[in-house]
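Hi support team,

I've been running sequence recovery on a batch of backbones for a student project. Most finish fine, but this one hangs at about 90% for roughly twenty minutes before it completes. I'm not sure whether the input is malformed or the queue is just slow. I've pasted the structure tokens below so you can try to reproduce it. Let me know if you need the job ID as well.

Thanks,
M.K.
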């Protein structure tokens, strides 16, 4: 009897795993194209897509190196990151802070120099023309207007907010990230976690 129960348990586990993988494949197919366009982490050279980050709550801030309002906004974002680091706040593990340059011809090494010179703590990458066009189609022209301080949040399950504009304080950013937090299930389990395909390298 015990052996038969074990066999059923193994069969059920396989069924759930296969079903979970199928659901994940369907979910990937349903993601917008801009989430699957390759980016390069300007700080590390690692390649990733926004889809790789699903399972975490992602703050996306379109920016440009010539934009003074962007520097003000990213100073607030860095303030939040540093505060979470100093407090050893576990919530930091659930968030990704991503600054995407709309300067499609900008070299990643130049963006890295810019981020380091200003002491910014976000993950930085340069959008391709394809990605910029896709984001404009999704969110409107404001996403390509860095001085308006545009931003949006991608939830852990792949859904996302409308675009917002205006400089926000560290406290406001944290409140918005918390408001958009959702739990997602890992493949084949009932646990409220998800595997993340790529995680930004922490910077001090």
């Amino acid at each position: 009897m015990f052996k038969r129960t074990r066999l059923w348990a193994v069969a059920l586990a396989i069924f759930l795993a296969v079903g979970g993988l199928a659901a994940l494949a369907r979910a990937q197919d349903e993601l917008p194209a801009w989430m699957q366009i390759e980016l390069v982490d300007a700080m590390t050279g690692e390649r990733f897509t926004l889809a790789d980050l699903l399972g975490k709550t992602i703050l996306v801030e379109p920016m440009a190196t010539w934009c003074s309002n962007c520097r003000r906004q990213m100073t607030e974002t860095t303030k939040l990151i540093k505060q979470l680091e100093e407090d050893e706040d576990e919530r930091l593990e659930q968030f990704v802070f991503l600054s995407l340059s709309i300067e499609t011809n900008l070299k990643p090494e130049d963006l890295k120099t810019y981020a380091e010179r200003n002491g910014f703590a976000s993950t930085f990458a340069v959008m391709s023309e394809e990605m910029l066009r896709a984001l404009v189609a999704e969110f409107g022209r404001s996403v390509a207007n860095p001085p308006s301080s545009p931003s949006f949040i991608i939830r852990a399950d792949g859904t996302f907010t409308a675009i917002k504009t205006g400089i926000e304080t560290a406290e406001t950013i944290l409140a918005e990230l918390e408001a958009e937090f959702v739990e997602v299930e890992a493949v084949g389990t009932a646990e409220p976690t998800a595997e993340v395909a790529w995680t930004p390298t922490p910077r001090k």
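--
Follow-up from support: It reproduced on our side and the slowdown came from queue contention, not your input. The radius of gyration is 19 Å. No action needed from you.
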